[in-house]
Write a structure and sequence with these properties.
heterodimer, A: about 350 residues, alpha/beta, 5-stranded parallel sheet, B: about 325 residues, Rossmann fold, 2 domains, 7-stranded mixed sheet, 5-stranded mixed sheet, globular, binds thiamine diphosphate
């Protein structure tokens, strides 16, 4: 099956009656701007890691269309469960650079208040967030509101039991859940072919989910498909799954060396399908991007990059006592004693 | 004899195991083309092919579950779990199947499966990449649990683990992967069986029991105690966490009368608690002070910026030594 595509790599647009899209200059400029900011942020975070300001960074490079296209197609009050590479989606929700980087700087294990952004904290254990999203959707179902839940996961995570249990559970409970898989072709060094022999959306269909395949580097297709599917889920159509075909253009993380396991020619071929260039061509062709817009966006990207650097370097360390005080609702006698003894030892060295 | 890092010593151990027995299989996430995230399986798939060095789908429960099936069919699988914090999806297979199959079958079914797990902190990693979860498995009857601390032991313990008829949880301390030392091509005189502890430094005044990533810290602590306080500390690398080598431990504590146990894992219900209880029974009348424990705090492993505070360092080990002498 061919993925849904509205905008081809050369920026040529075709309409698809199954996936209506009200194409306006404002929408295209907004999506383009969000992708550019996300990419600039990601580049800056990479630099910060190389400068030693971050312990680790996992780049979202190349996956901007999949993330921005999908999150912009749900409502701001729809709760999101990301995995750990959804930086572009997080930025769309207003999560700040500091909040996004603090976890990778090694100062905290999570960066933001999920209630503020309706965006759960990152989950590093693969597929573990998927049953959480399902349960949250069961709650929404019981509360009788018209929110939906959007959960992100990767092609590698899809091999875990919890991912497949989620497909099944969601289907049988008919929860308002939209599962969004970014198939970026690689799970560290393991290609998608090693993970699965049927495509993921077909697998989801086998579990009884409505599922669709979309060109994940075509932001208009991602946006149109997600919007339509989200509305069906919202109106009681049951859970659904979208597989977006995209590409992890960088290494798995800053600790990874992708040259050990994949051919440079593969990256080159995906570069010709870059999600940002594609929309840029459309904007140019339609005359929707004048010099003023371009210059303003370049400037905004640079300001954002500088802010990212500054906020990162100024991130404060918490007091060690937070480590002891956040384990349980009340510190136990053991923790209190351990904390006291530690403080005493530190003080004895200070003397 | 050659100078190898722990990572390379384990790699050559796997190489030998694969060469010596065609039934040996290496399996895990990214162990093939990439050679593992710590390069422990580097080059093995090239040498032995993808039938024997398997890049598995991303599913820990099935990595261990299929290893059990392979073992039932006469193979000797060596599984790699990518990081300590990712073993839990396989917990059910390890605890309910791998550990119990021999007893369940009245001794008829052996499962010679090795599960390699990079363990512990000190590498500045993000959450789930620095845990010390050895007691979950030490608490489970039917498993052998071992932890190496240096290249020579890593190499030979791994080969012994593969040869064992029992399932072995094989821990490799991450922060020691790049430490270099001599590794012999044939078993050295000093090579111990898998179920023995090693006395690394002898002393008459206090026994310091430890394993894995803390061994180096404890050896440095012993050197400082000797130099600054003229205290002769006997440092014992436990190596085997289940079963415990109580003979070596009790002999040492019987001699010194004082004991400190140090590990990265939280102290509460940690290995030190078991060792302490055992020593109290074995050596009660030899003891001049209670067995003291030094470990990580009883909290989830903290963010990387706090791990220097969380992990017992030289000062915390020496503080426990002081407290023991002050008793
Ligand atoms: C349960 C579990 N096992 C192993 C890992 C180690 N690990 C982290 S990311 C990763 C690959 C994930 O690939 P995919 O799901 O495709 O997402 P991507 O990183 O490509 O975005 C692995 C094996 C983990 N985080 N959790």
């Amino acid at each position: 099956m061919e993925p849904v595509q509205l905008l081809d790599p050369d920026g040529r647009l075709t309409q698809d009656e199954n996936w209506p899209l009200e194409l306006t200059p404002e929408l295209c400029r907004d999506l383009y701007r969000r992708m550019r900011l996300a990419r600039r942020f990601d580049e800056q975070a990479y630099v910060l890691q190389r400068q030693g300001e971050l312990g680790l960074w996992l780049q979202s490079l190349g996956q901007e269309a999949a993330q921005v296209g999908s999150i912009s197609a749900v409502r701001p009050d729809d709760h999101v469960f990301p995995s750990y590479r959804e930086h572009a989606a997080a930025l769309c929700r207003g999560i700040t650079p500091a909040e996004l980087l603090v976890q990778w700087r090694g100062s905290r294990n999570s960066g933001w208040d999920p209630a503020t952004y309706r965006f759960h904290i990152y989950t590093l254990v693969l597929a573990a967030q998927l049953p959480h999203a399902t349960g949250y959707a069961m709650g929404v179902q019981r509360d009788g509101t018209d929110e939906i839940v959007l959960a992100y996961f990767g092609d590698g995570a899809a091999s875990e039991g919890e991912a497949n249990e989620t497909f099944n559970w969601a289907a049988t409970t008919e929860v308002p859940l939209l599962l969004f898989c970014q198939n970026n072709q690689w799970a560290i060094s393991t290609p998608a072919h090693t993970q699965t022999r049927t495509s993921l959306h077909q697998r989801a269909q086998g579990f009884g989910l409505e599922a669709h395949l979309v060109d994940g580097n075509d932001i208009l297709a991602v946006h149109a498909v997600t919007a339509a599917v989200a509305e069906r889920v919202r109106s009681g159509g049951g859970p659904a799954m979208i597989e977006a075909q995209t590409y992890r253009m960088a290494g798995h993380s800053t600790s990874d060396d992708p040259d050990r396991y994949r051919d440079a020619s593969e990256l080159d071929s995906w570069k010709t399908r870059d999600p940002i260039h594609r929309l840029e061509r459309l904007l140019e062709e339609r005359g929707w991007m004048n010099d003023g817009f371009r210059a303003d966006l370049e400037a905004e990207c640079e300001v954002f990059a500088n802010r990212t650097s500054q906020e990162c370097k100024q991130l404060p360390l918490q007091d060690v006592s937070t480590l002891f005080n956040t384990v349980l609702a009340e510190p136990t006698p053991l923790l209190t004693e351990e904390h006291r003894r530690y403080a005493e030892l530190v003080a004895s060295f200070a003397e | 004899m050659s100078q190898l890092t722990l990572s390379k010593a384990l790699n050559t151990g796997l190489q030998q195991a694969l060469t010596n027995d065609p039934k040996v299989i290496v399996m895990g996430q990214d162990v093939g083309g990439l050679g593992g995230v710590f390069r422990v399986t580097d080059g093995l798939q090239k040498d032995f092919g993808p039938q024997r060095v398997i890049d598995t789908p991303l599913a820990e429960a099935s990595i261990v579950g299929t290893a059990i099936g392979l073992a039932l069919r006469g193979y000797r699988p060596i599984c790699e779990i990518q990081f300590d914090g990712f073993v839990y999806p396989a917990f059910n297979q390890i605890v309910s199947q791998l550990a119990k199959m021999r007893a369940r079958s009245h001794g008829q079914l052996a499962l010679p499966v090795v599960i390699r797990i990079p363990v512990g902190g000190g590498i500045g990693a993000v959450e789930h990449h620095s845990e010390s979860n050895e007691v979950y498995f030490a608490h489970t009857a039917g498993l052998r649990v071992v932890c190496c601390s240096n290249p020579q032991d890593g190499h030979w313990m791994l080969r012994q683990a593969v040869a064992s008829e029992d399932p072995v949880i094989f821990y490799e301390p991450k922060r020691r992967y790049w430490a270099k030392d001599e590794v012999t091509d044939t078993p050295a005189e000093s090579t111990l069986p898998l179920d023995r502890a090693r006395i690394l430094r002898s002393g008459d005044d206090l026994t310091l029991l430890t394993y894995g990533g803390m061994v180096d810290t404890c050896q440095r602590a012993a050197a400082v105690a000797a130099e600054e306080d003229r205290r002769e500390i006997e440092v014992v690398d436990l190596r085997t966490l289940s079963p415990l080598d109580m003979e070596t431990i009790a002999a040492s504590v019987g001699k010194t009368g004082r004991c400190v146990v140090a590990h990265e894992a939280p102290t509460f219900a940690g290995l030190g608690a078991e060792v302490g209880a055992e020593i109290t029974e074995y050596s009660f009348y030899d003891l001049q002070a209670p067995v003291l424990r030094v470990g990580g705090f009883n909290i989830p492993y903290p963010p990387a910026k706090y791990e220097d505070q969380h992990l017992p360092d030289l000062d915390r080990v020496l503080d426990a030594v002081d407290r023991s002498f002050a008793w």
